[in-house]
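INFO  loader      accepted 1 record
INFO  loader      residues=135
INFO  predictor   begin
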Amino acid sequence: MKKHIFLHSLILFIFMLTGCGDNVRLRGTVTFSDDGSPLPMGTVNFAKDGYLARGIIKEDGSYVVGSLSSNDGLLPGTYRVYVTGAYREVAPGLDESLIDHKYHTPDTSGLVCEVPYPRGRYNISVDRFPFPTSR
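INFO  predictor   done
INFO  writer      dumping tokens
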């Protein structure tokens, strides 16, 4: 029994050391298309055939993609990309989107990323939410 536990522990340890060898460490930045300033919050989502990986956007607009953990990367391939959670509170209980609503779903964002192997970078430029201008 002890040999059995030792063998399983050894296999798990080797797997942890090697990690998921095919995963790509993908990172990038999200900026506004009008002035290049960073989108300071939200989540970048990468969707492909029922698989989803995410990267939390930091205040400087940077993100690192993870699927099972926060930065373990994702498999090479073509992904539809969309951005969620980019809202600011304008009044108690009232939020407004910082980005155009088209970026909220993979069907309307128009963003596609071909993830390379073994390392990658994908920078995203988004349009601001079109607020009405006052006269």
